[in-house]
Automatic annotation (TrEMBL):
Keywords, in A-Z order: Coiled coil
GO biological process, one term: regulation of transcription by RNA polymerase II
Residues of the signal peptide: none
Taxonomic placement: Eukaryota, Metazoa, Ecdysozoa, Arthropoda, Hexapoda
Protein name: Jg15238 protein
Coiled-coil regions listed: 13-56
GO CC entries: transcription factor TFIIH holo complex
Pfam family, one: MAT1
Length: 179
């Protein structure tokens, strides 16, 4: 009976530890959400400041250099009031230290480039005669010398015409090459 009581006690401790870990995870998610909200608000504030500068430059009667200087000074003063970052957490509240993921950095933002556009490959001079087209391969009996595909290969998209075309391209390239 003594062993069953210790098993119940150990199970209760594990359950309490799991609850504590779940609460800590929820708190960490709340902190992340708050940081993201603060960053978004800072971005909006920068946009508002830029729009205010543009409006001031457009409608003010004063010198543009003076307006830019005052704007730069106000931006410098606001940068001194930077929001302090949360300290880096390296252990749970129970005292267990993190072993994995403590060095994880957020994924870098990747700027998207232009969309992919297909361009047909340029075939260099083969130094030989042009190989037959796929229609000529099918109609002139070239496929008699190539293993035919089975049902499984057909289902996978394999046809025997492309390997036959490749073999003919390899055989005919370089025939006219003179060293």
């Amino acid at each position: 009976m003594g062993e069953s009581q210790t098993d119940l006690f150990a199970g209760r401790e594990e359950f309490e530890l799991e609850e504590i870990l779940e609460i800590e995870k929820q708190m960490e998610e709340l902190k992340r959400a708050e940081i993201l909200k603060m960053e978004e608000e800072a971005k909006k504030q920068k946009i508002r400041e830029k729009e205010a500068l543009i409006d001031e430059l457009m409608f003010a009667e004063g010198d543009a250099k003076e307006i830019l200087n005052t704007f730069a000074q106000t931006v410098a003063n606001k940068q001194e009031e930077v929001v302090p970052l949360l300290p880096k957490v390296t252990q749970f509240s129970t005292g267990v230290k993190f072993t994995r993921g403590s060095g994880q950095q957020p994924l870098p933002l990747i700027e998207e480039g232009p969309l992919y556009r297909y361009e047909a490959p340029e075939i260099p001079d083969r130094c030989g005669p042009d190989p037959p087209t796929i229609q000529e391969i099918c109609s002139n009996g070239y496929l008699q010398h190539v293993r035919a595909e089975n049902d499984t290969e057909k289902a996978g998209g394999y046809t025997s015409t492309l390997p036959c075309l490749r073999a003919l391209q390899d055989a005919l390239s370089g025939l006219y090459h003179a060293s």
